[in-house]
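Protocol step 4 of 6: structure prediction from sequence.
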Amino acid sequence: MPLNLIKLCVGVDDIGQLARSQKRRLAEARKAGVPAELKHVTRHRPKRADELLDGGSLYWVIRGVVRVRQRLVELRKLEDPDRGTVCALMLHPELVTTYPRRFRAFQGWRYFPGEDAPADAPPGWDSDGLPPELETELRELGLL
């Protein structure tokens, strides 16, 4: 199983908002004439980079629930004028919806072994419009 990362998606309320935000950033990059790439910049480069890039993803925790993932395509060293050397987690643009899983708050990113990660939801999957918190609780109780 691949090694993954997990990260809080701060300030985002749902998958649609994350998708719109990323789409807007790509459009702004194109307009500015720079490569349209999705990245999340972090201070420290993961030491287990080879394992992460062998099929790993970044799992996003949205409002306390793992909801979506994006495949990691590269870990890129960048120089930031304010922070010095940083690491850009380069992300595939496809957002893959997962079955929801509650996850407590933490700072930064964490390694997330594949056996601990929630399964991908099937294409077109919909939770019948249930609020994410209720859906997560029902799934944890084995009712969904």
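Step 5 (inspection) to follow. The two ends are 25 Å apart (CA to CA).
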